[in-house]
Amino acid sequence: MKLLINGALIFILLSFCLYSCKKDEVKTISGKWYYAKTILTYYDAGRVYDTDTTNVSGSSYAISFNSNGTGETIRPGGDNNFTYSLSGSSLTVVVDTTSSTGQVGTVTTKLTILQLTNSSLKWMTTNTSGYYEVTNENDLVRSF
Questions:
Q1: pLDDT for 13-66, tens place per residue?
Q2: Which CATH number do you get for residue 88?
Q3: b or e along 60-74 (b: 16 or more beta carbons within 10 Å of the residue's beta carbon)?
Q4: Does residue 2 lie within any of the structural domains?
Q5: Does a structural domain hold residue 105?
Q6: Are 104 and 112 in contact (CB under 8 A)?
């Protein structure tokens, strides 16, 4: 009888713990995201020589991802349309630069997603030129 009562108590405790645990947020990149912070880290021959942090909360700079793989950058001075693909933590964005430059062309950027929740998105990209390397981290918040 004691074994039956202990088993029932363990079942009740486990049920309570599982029920009360917070469910994971649905993670989707679709939606409109506003830039909150940008961190640029500059490297020379593998050593950090400068870091520049810009808080842009409340700015009009945003990016919108549609569920069909298209999107739009939103910024003062002009917007750009793009297509994107997301595979795991790799985000590839292809921007149509025709509207901003007047010449037909595209720019492809590969980003690494560091964090994605319903309310925040953080990504990073690295550009290398000879001995110089620049890491660009962006924190974004979702518009609801």
A1: 444 444 444 444 547 899 999 988 888 888 887 788 888 888 876 667 889 999
A2: 2.40.128.20
A3: ebbbbbeeeeebbbb
A4: no
A5: yes
A6: no
Q: What are the residues whose beta carbons fall under 8 Å from the beta carbon of 71, sequence distance 6 or more?
A: 63, 64, 65, 81, 82, 83, 84, 93
Phi, psi of 5 (to 5 degrees): -65, -45
Q: What pTM was estimated for this model as a whole? A: 0.70
Question: Is 19 a domain residue?
Answer: no
What are 116-125's pLDDT values in tens digits? 998 899 998 8
Total domains in the chain come to 1
Domain assignment present for residue 136? The answer is: yes
Q: Which domain holds residue 136?
A: 26-142
